[in-house]
Write a structure and sequence with these properties.
The complex is a heterodimer.
Chain A: E1 5-9, E2 12-16, H1 22-28, E3 52-55, E4 62-63, E5 74-76, H2 80-95, H3 111-119, E6 137-138, E7 143-145, H4 155-163, E8 170-172, E9 179-181, H5 195-199, E10 205-207, E11 219-225, E12 234-240, E13 244-250, H6 263-266, H7 270-273, E14 280-284, E15 287-291, H8 293-307, E16 313-317, H9 323-336, E17 342-343, H10 356-363, E18 366-367, E19 378-382, H11 386-389, H12 391-403, E20 407-412, E21 425-427, H13 433-446, H14 451-460, E22 466-471, H15 480-494, E23 499-503, H16 509-514, E24 521-522, E25 526-527, H17 538-546, E26 552-556, H18 559-563, H19 566-574, E27 577-582, E28 594-597, E29 606-609, E30 614-618, H20 631-641, H21 651-661, H22 670-673, E31 678-679
Parallel strand pairs in A: 1-5, 16-17, 16-26, 18-23, 19-20, 19-22, 20-21, 22-23, 26-27, 27-28
Antiparallel strand pairs in A: 1-2, 3-4, 3-5, 6-7, 7-10, 8-9, 11-12, 12-13, 14-15, 14-28, 24-25, 29-30, 30-31
Helix pairs in contact in A: 2-3, 8-20, 9-20, 9-21, 10-15, 13-14, 13-15, 17-19
Chain B: H1 6-16, H2 26-37, H3 42-51, H4 56-65, E1 77-82, H5 85-89, H6 92-103, E2 116-121, E3 133-135, E4 138-140, H7 145-156
Parallel strand pairs in B: 1-2
Antiparallel strand pairs in B: 1-3, 3-4
Helix pairs in contact in B: 1-2, 3-4
Bound molecules: iron/sulfur cluster (2 copies) and FE2/S2 (inorganic) cluster.
One iron/sulfur cluster (SF4) binds at residues 226, 228-229, 231-233, 257, 261-262, 264-265, 390-392 of chain A.
């Protein structure tokens, strides 16, 4: 017996799952039915009537976006009646449409243009004055609204209702005056607002920061990865002839972004276009002057060699560099310069907690991936506010809560955005993490208890599938071993095989950990032994530089500098021989002795490892600014100047070396990483063993 | 412009308590706001959103969808003449003409003293009594011009105490900027 439904569309038979919408069944046959309000991720509403089709036996045409398939249905999507209806609908939609395509950001990728060409009337019969609105209205920090162009498909409002639950825009008035709008004083500042620009099928919602970015047909697209946080959302970089980045667009990957982007990521590309370092530089008579690549490399190499082997060098490498760059920096630091003080962060991280993903595995959880959230009926977040720490993952949790009625238990020092959807908000004083987790574990084991903890425990003691999410803020705890123990108790109380997902702060923090950009840990998560065991942490490096215990600093990417006290950073950098490698001097408060011009992620090929260990590729979108180069090539030059040759001529070759060095990556086939990435394996050795301070 | 008074808030909370979901009380809550100010102000919309755990945009959407909530200045007395078929056949057109002449305003407008607004509405469901006019919650059936004059005279000379200052004009920024020709 088959569960499938058989029907006929345009003379072709198709078998499809029950409840499939007609418009989707047609798509499965490769038949295009024009739509505006229909969107696969939003509930159907049948607002625009663009998708009308004829079903035999039904007196009137039927919207195919709200009608599920039925056994034996005979559907026509291309006969004269349907075509007449389409023409009519388009004529209605165009009655008040301003037809300002020549100045509209959507022009060229606009379904209203496309369908009008394909199905629409050639001429208007409307002889009356068109309705006018003031435009554009800035309805939020990032969003402009042009009501004249709006076709009232309500995708934007439905997104804000169903997906983000930030209902800051609404449908106002009715009939001829119906429009989208906000209430004065309550603007559309949702951090997911940018998604409505993509959803809007016309140019009614456009991006304020990207207004007039160019004509869509002059724009090229390159697949890449967002560097805004560790989610690793897949993006498409839109650029003009490889010159500058004009906007970022989503590129759906169900493992990371689920098709959405947050505004921080979507609009956070200015650093690629602005304040860029175009040349290598050296400090001469107190002035930074342009130098040849050769001069700067030789000068940097001489500083490095002076302090190699002596414990007087510190290295900070940014967690938004690619794996290939980080691998090169690690190679030069440990293998060539015999230096063990290397870190990717200057915030206070407890060395025991650095490899958070290993810690939770040690505690008895399964290494979780973001998609585990999609399976869970109960979600526990510990020490993480996803709104801030990983916005896109918050949408994934909301999807679980809204669409599958999953339940949430939140452990955080305050009420978080997601706390609106649960009674189980376990709010604690910062520092009490371990005892809260331990008491929750104890309560789960005993099947309940008093107060909020008891209630949450009663919920969690059921059999329902669970997922736990822990945040990097826990890494700062000074008594981390108590928390690790409590996590172990929770893991055993929740039962076997509960996935735990670790949320890291930066787009490649996980990669930096896997590649040994942290004191005491070699690539592959191997605890360092012998001479490299006792490296300093980022914050210790800066303090030692300030106090004169370090003589030289090599900083690759400014991110770690932004995490420490600015006074400390200034004092530290001013007190040492300072090599800076990066794409901008904007966040570097002291003139370096040597400046090495590195490209950004938008100009190079490479890989990032996201929060749950997914290795994803980036591709060069724009040309390197000036003479800047990918970091691993700069490092290879430095190595050569120091007499060590490093054999790698392409990002793929570097990645092959990474595969050899990092067991978790050994199974990854370069050809399979493609544009959607591959999950790295779980193979790091125990976290607690051998961690040093 | 007016936020909700403590009394209105109390009334809204009492209504909300009757529903499993607070936002189900939205329509009656909007009436409470309208009773307070004569119109539903933006401030009241924001207050209601807070009381009913909805967002201002959602509340404004509902308030502006239904024509029985006024969002911009109306008179103290709103005369609603039915303009649908039965009443039209029985002479509502003459009532409308008379009102226009007597009050010196067009349909949908308010007299300068803020006392009267008159508008035509769709079927009031009392065709048996056509032509019909609704004033507040009172129906006037088989209405004649003479009776209409009497009603207006009566309201016109109501004592001042019963006739507070007309509500101020709310700039209705969301109305189309009028029909300019293209
Ligand atoms: S603004 Fe765009 S997405 Fe929103 S209703 Fe109008 S056309 Fe649809
Ligand atoms: S959630 Fe993170 S990775 Fe995704 S778009 Fe936002 S900043 Fe970028
Ligand atoms: S797409 Fe079906 S009604 Fe809009």
């Amino acid at each position: 017996m088959s569960d499938l439904v058989t029907l006929t569309i345009d003379g072709q038979q198709i078998q499809t799952a029950p409840n499939t919408l007609l418009v989707e069944a047609a798509a499965q046959l490769g038949i295009l039915v024009p739509v505006y309000c229909y969107h696969p991720k939003l509930a159907p509403i049948g607002a625009c009537r663009m998708c009308l089709v004829e079903i035999e036996g039904m007196p009137k045409l039927t919207p195919s976006c709200t009608t599920p398939v039925k056994e034996g249905m005979v559907v026509h999507t291309q006969n004269a009646r349907v075509e007449k209806a389409r023409r009519g609908m388009l004529e209605f939609l165009l009655i008040h449409h301003p037809l300002d395509c020549p100045v509209c950001d959507k022009g060229g990728e606009c379904p209203l243009q496309d369908y009008t060409y394909e199905f629409g009337p050639r001429k208007t019969r409307f002889r009356y004055p068109k309705r006018h609105w003031d435009k554009p209205l800035q309805i939020g920090k990032n969003i402009l609204l042009d009501r004249e162009r709006c076709i009232m498909c309500l995708r934007c409002v439905r997104f804000c209702e169903e997906i983000s639950d930030h209902q800051q825009i609404g449908v106002f008035e009715r009939g001829h005056s119906q429009c989208i709008g906000t209430v004065p004083g309550h603007s559309f500042d949702s951090q997911f607002s940018g998604n409505t620009i993509e959803l809007c099928p016309v140019g009614a919602l456009t991006g304020a920061p990207t207004r007039f970015f160019g004509r869509t047909w002059e724009i090229q697209h390159t697949p890449s990865i967002c560097t805004g946080c560790a989610a690793g959302c897949n993006i498409r970089i839109d650029h003009r002839q490889q010159r500058d980045v004009v906007r970022l667009w989503s590129r759906e990957n169900k493992h990371t972004d689920d098709g959405w982007l947050c505004d921080r990521g979507r609009f956070g590309y200015e650093f690629v276009n602005q304040d860029r370092l175009k040349d290598f530089k050296i400090l001469q008579d107190g002035q930074l002057v342009d130098a040849t690549t050769q001069q700067a490399t030789v000068k940097a190499a001489s500083i490095l060699s002076k302090h190699a082997n002596s414990g007087s060098l510190g290295v900070l490498a940014s967690p938004i560099l690619t794996n290939e760059e980080l691998y090169a920096v690690e190679w030069l630091t440990r293998s060539v310069l015999q230096t063990s003080s290397i870190d990717h962060t200057a915030s206070a991280v407890n060395p025991q907690a650095v490899q958070l993903h290993s810690v939770v595995r040690e505690a008895g959880f399964r290494s979780g991936v973001l998609t585990d959230i999609d399976e869970a009926a109960q979600i526990v977040t510990i020490g993480v506010d996803l709104s801030n720490d990983q916005p896109i993952t918050e949408l994934r949790v909301k999807k679980a809560l809204f669409q599958r009625k999953a339940q949430l238990v939140s452990l955080y020092p305050e009420t978080i955005e997601l706390g609106r959807y649960t009674e189980h908000n376990l709010i604690y004083e910062p520092g009490q993490e371990a005892s809260v987790v331990a008491s929750l574990a104890a309560a789960v084991r005993s099947g309940g208890g008093e107060g909020v903890v008891g209630q949450a425990a009663r919920l969690l003691s059921s059999e329902a599938p669970k997922a736990v999410i822990v945040g990097w803020k826990l890494q700062g705890l000074s008594d981390f071993s108590a928390l690790a123990k409590a996590l172990g108790e929770l893991a055993s109380a929740l039962g076997p095989d509960v996935p735990c997902i670790t949320i890291y702060p930066n787009c490649n923090t996980r990669g930096a950990l896997d590649l040994g950009i942290t004191p005491g840990w070699l690539p592959g998560g191997v605890a360092a032994t012998g001479s490299s065991e006792s490296g300093m942490t980022g914050i210790q490096i800066l303090e030692a530089a300030r106090d004169g215990r370090l003589k030289a600093l090599w900083v690759v990417g400014a991110e770690p500098l932004l995490e420490a006290d600015p006074e400390l950073v200034k004092a530290a950098l001013a007190n040492v021989e300072f090599i800076y490698q990066g794409w901008s001097l904007r966040d570097v408060p002291v003139d370096p002795d040597v400046v090495l011009a590195n490209v950004t992620f938008a100009e190079q090929a490479g890989t990032f490892t996201n929060t749950d260990g997914r290795v994803q590729r980036i591709y060069p979108a724009v040309k390197p600014h000036g003479r800047s180069r990918p970091g691993w090539q700069i490092v290879a030059d430095l190595g050569r100047a120091l007499g060590k040759t490093w054999e790698a001529t392409s990002d793929q070759e570097v990645f092959e070396q990474i595969r050899q060095a990092v067991p978790a990556y050994s199974q990854i086939k370069w050809s399979e990483v493609g544009t959607l990435g591959v999950q790295s394996g779980a193979s790091a050795p125990p976290a607690m063993a051998g961690a040093t301070g | 412009m007016a936020h909700l008074t403590a009394e209105s808030r109390q009334r809204i909370n009492d209504i909300a308590a009757r529903y499993p979901e607070k936002r189900s009380a939205l329509l009656p809550a909007l009436y409470v706001a309208q009773e307070q100010d004569g119109i539903v102000t933006d401030e009241a919309i924001i207050d209601i959103a807070e009381l009913l755990e909805a967002t201002p945009a959602y509340v404004k959407g509902v308030a502006s969808f239904y024509t029985m909530y006024y969002r911009y200045s109306v008179g103290k007395y709103i005369l609603q003449v039915c303009g649908t078929l039965s009443c039209e056949l029985c002479g509502s057109g003459q009532l409308v003409n008379h009102l226009e002449e007597r009050l010196g305003i067009k349909e949908g407008e308010t007299t300068p003293d803020g006392r009267f607004t008159f508008e035509t509405v769709e079927c009031l469901g009392a065709c048996g009594g056509a032509p019909v006019m609704l004033l507040g919650d009172k129906y006037y059936e088989k209405l004649t011009i003479k009776q209409l004059d009497a009603i207006i005279d009566d309201l016109r000379f109501k004592p001042a105490s019963d006739h507070p200052e007309p509500p101020q004009l709310v700039p209705f920024e969301d109305k189309p900027a009028g029909a300019k020709s293209t």
